[in-house]
Design goal:
- There is one protein chain.
- A hairpin with a 4-residue loop joins strand 5 and strand 6.
- The protein has a single domain, classed as NAD(P)-binding Rossmann-like Domain (Rossmann fold).
- The strands form 5 sheets. The protein has a 3-stranded parallel beta sheet with strand order 1-7-10, with helices on both faces. The protein has a 3-stranded mixed beta sheet with strand order 8-9-11. Strands 2-12 form a two-stranded parallel sheet.
- It is an alpha/beta fold.
Length: about 280
């Protein structure tokens, strides 16, 4: 939740960037940390051109999200109205989950999250230039993470995957925001994300920026797959947006990493997780 009083940071983005700087300082002072691996996000790698005239031909590690993009489905903030027995409460949130008596609610403010992840990753990568031969830096920019996971509740990203089935407008808006920002939606299984982190920690001479996603799909691709099991899915979800952009990142695989989980497995595991949690 965004604090408005008694808080030393002016906003969510400033707090995130400062946290990264403190991690960097701790690594430098330790004199024992040889490699810093930062879990980044693909929201920092938008292939949208700076003049907003369209997308680049491919999405890869050379792409950076411009701070001044006007992306559809962006809200400065989302207001959630919780109706209780005696009163209505209004909340203004960034990225979090909170729980009422019977339900867990998830809210994601795309613009704040995107700006914080972009600025934080750029800050991390500066170290590579400043600490040559002292500290190796890896940023692992993960796609939309699916799968069953180990948490007792579904993550924000799983809710985005199944938003079309659950008919959840807020989570579907977040899914569409990703698609508008990135051309299509890079996705990856949670198990592959864990394996990629271990790979980057154990493989010699790994440094720099890596995108981590096994598939690059549209929201309509996701909807068509789930429509096989849920024929009454909203037909608007199946509409394609005619983008020819392709996934151009092979940097992680060129180092020797191999993804194990297919698109179908990612979507199936998200669905099973949602069922297990009682959302569907």
């Amino acid at each position: 939740m965004q604090h408005t009083t008694g808080y030393k940071y002016n906003n969510f983005v400033e707090a995130a960037v400062n946290a990264v700087k403190e991690i960097i300082d701790a690594c430098k002072k330790s004199r024992t940390v040889k490699r810093l691996i930062y879990t980044a996000s693909v929201v920092a790698a938008s292939p949208l051109k700076d003049d907003a005239s369209g997308y680049k031909i491919t999405m890869d590690e050379s792409c950076w999200t411009s701070p001044h993009l006007n992306v559809p489905y962006t809200n400065d903030f989302l207001e959630v109205l919780l109706l209780s027995k005696s009163k209505m409460q209004k909340w203004s949130l960034s990225l979090c989950h909170f729980q009422s008596k019977n339900k867990i609610f998830y809210i994601w403010v795309p613009e704040d999250y995107t700006n914080s992840k972009t600025k934080s990753e750029r800050e991390i990568l500066k170290i590579e230039e400043e600490t040559v031969n002292e500290l190796e830096v890896v940023t692992l920019s993960c796609g939309l993470v699916g799968g069953r996971g180990r948490l007792p509740y579904p993550t924000v990203t799983v809710l985005m995957f199944i938003s079309q089935i659950a008919n959840n407008c807020t989570n579907y808006q977040s899914l569409r925001y990703l698609e508008e920002l990135l051309g299509k939606i890079p996705i990856v299984h949670i198990e592959d994300v864990c394996r990629a982190h271990i790979f980057c920690a154990e493989t010699p001479s790994v440094n720099g920026r890596f995108l981590c996603a096994s598939s690059y799909v549209t929201s309509a691709d996701i909807a068509r797959y789930y429509q096989k099991m849920y024929p009454r899915l909203n037909k608007e979800c199946i509409e394609e947006h005619g983008r020819e952009i392709k996934w151009g990142s092979k940097k992680l695989e060129d180092k020797g990493f191999a993804y194990k989980y297919s698109t179908e497995k990612i979507l199936n595991d998200c669905l099973e997780f949602a069922k297990r949690s009682g959302l569907i």
